[in-house]
C-alpha cells in the first residue's frame, strides 16, 4: 500500500495512492499517527482497500500533499552511514552508528518550500531512505527488527553545516530548523518495496545531478539500526528513522556549494517516488 496525507498544513487527512490515483480514506481513519499504527491500522486499511476501494472519494491531483505520517514522537537520524559520504566529509567511517535527533517541527510535505534559516549561509541537501516504525520497539533483536517496520519513505535531511559543525556541541543545531524534513510523497509498506538493500537514491539541484547512490552501500543495515537505536530509547509507532545519505552533498564539494533562494531540489528513491522543494529566504513568501 502507498499511504498519503493531503490538505493544508496541520489539516491533512489520510489517503491512499492506487494506480496513480489518490483516494480519501478520512471517513474511516482519523490520521496516520501513533494510534493508527499501534492499533492495527495498516491491516484495517488493507481490508478497506480489498472490499471498498471502488467507493472511496477521489482526491484531486492539485491538492497539496503533506508528509505521509502525522508528526511523530521522534525523528532519529543516522549520520555517516554510507562509506562514500563519510569519505567526502573527511570523517572516519564509524564503528557504531552515529545518531542525532531532528526536531519533529521540521517535518513538511514533499513539495513544500525549504526555508533557509535566519542567518544561514550553509544550507545543504541529503537524500535519505526513511523508515517508519509500526510498533513499540525497545531492546529489539536484530533478527526480529523488520517486524517493527510499518513502511518506508523518501526524506531530504536538510542540514545547515555552520549550525551543525561550527557552532559547538552536537549536530542537532543544524538539523532541526523549520522545513528541514520534507518527507514523502508516500509511505510504502514493505511488501510494495521489495529489497531495501539495493534501492537507488538520487538528488539534483537546479537539474544538475548531485547525489546518485544505492542503499547497497549502507555501512549499517536497517535491522541493525532499529535494534541499535532501541537499546538507547523506545521507538513508538509512527516514529521515523532516517538512515543516512550517500556521497554528493554540498559540504563535500571543492569548494563547498550551498543552497540559495530560488534553487530547486529534486530527489527520489526507487519505489518511493520523487519530491521537489524550492528554496526560500527566511521571511520571504
Ligand atoms: Zn542525514
Automatic annotation (TrEMBL):
Signal peptide: none
Domain Fumarylacetoacetase-like C-terminal: 74-277
GO biological process, one term: carboxylic acid metabolic process
Molecular functions per Gene Ontology: isomerase activity; lyase activity; metal ion binding
Entry keyword set: Lyase, Metal-binding
Lyase is among the record's keywords: yes
UniProt similarity note: Belongs to the FAH family.
Protein name: Ureidoglycolate lyase
